[in-house]
Peptide deformylase
Amino acid sequence: MKLQIVEYPDKRLRQKSQEVKVFDEKLHELLDAMHPFMIETNGIGLAAIQVAHPIRALVINLPDEEGEQHPENLLEIINPVIVSKAGETTYQEGCLSVPQFYEDVKRHDMITINYQDREGNTKTLDADGLLAIAIQHEMDHLEGILFIDHLSYARRKKFEKEYKRMQKERKKSK
């Protein structure tokens, strides 16, 4: 399965993803393709909507201390729901759909989610630190929300100007 990142300002990123109801080979193929694609594109998380599949599915694979992303640490999270949240933290986030742009975003420091795995089994996960941040970031994608939506009005205007300039430069270099 060939995947491609949907980049801002593509309107598909604003669409709300649909609940996964069928846990079949088609879903497994998508999940199997998303993980290596995420690694190849230097991501730690990827929502299905970012590769043009508007379903409530995401993958996360945090790097270890050496920066390695091991397959056994892969999380496949389908139909996630936050059931509790606590604390607050600020983290400099980036996004594969908003390339080359990083900004401080406030998130909950600790969350608990209920979700389903690729077989449809219900699971619960307690997450804190970077894992909690990554889950919240990817879950925002499922709602059509980008990390830049969390910026102040002034910072968002500055982002829009910087991003347009960067896009022009990227087009010139191609």
In short: The domain at 11-173 is CATH 3.90.45.10 (Peptide Deformylase). Residues 153-173 form the longest helix (21 residues).
